Amino acid sequence: MSFTNRINCDCGAVDNTLARVYNAVEATIDVLILKVQNGFNLSLSLFVFVGGSGQEIPLFHGTTAESCGLRRYVIAVEMDTWLQLKFKVGQNGSKNDHLERSCHFKANIHGCACQQIMLQHASLSLSLKVTLSTVPA
């Protein structure tokens, strides 16, 4: 079971989603945009299982016109479950022309997994890195 709390500030709002996760590991997710030829819209979400039900956690939604590193995301997930990173990429100004891709990572006690994704249609190259470590009890 999870719940979301919104914190409103002068410059916007932040949603915090909280859940009690048993037998958890910490997943640190780094997303790098390695190559961009044209500006594009990017939407990145993480799908995890908490208490037997799937949860979608939006990580990023916005426009990017140059190579850069996105924020680092840290999430507690149940050990021996799968993390699914799903992203949608579309050209600026286009509502119907978009690609969807997913990457899967297994939540183990320790480890690091990297995947590089090249999308020729969007002239885009992404690097995804997930680092896993134990959560102190």
Automatic annotation (TrEMBL):
InterPro entries: DUF6598 (IPR046533)
Pfam families on file: DUF6598
Domain DUF6598 residues, every copy: 3-125
Superkingdom of origin organism: Eukaryota
Name of this protein: DUF6598 domain-containing protein
Organism annotation: Hordeum vulgare subsp. vulgare
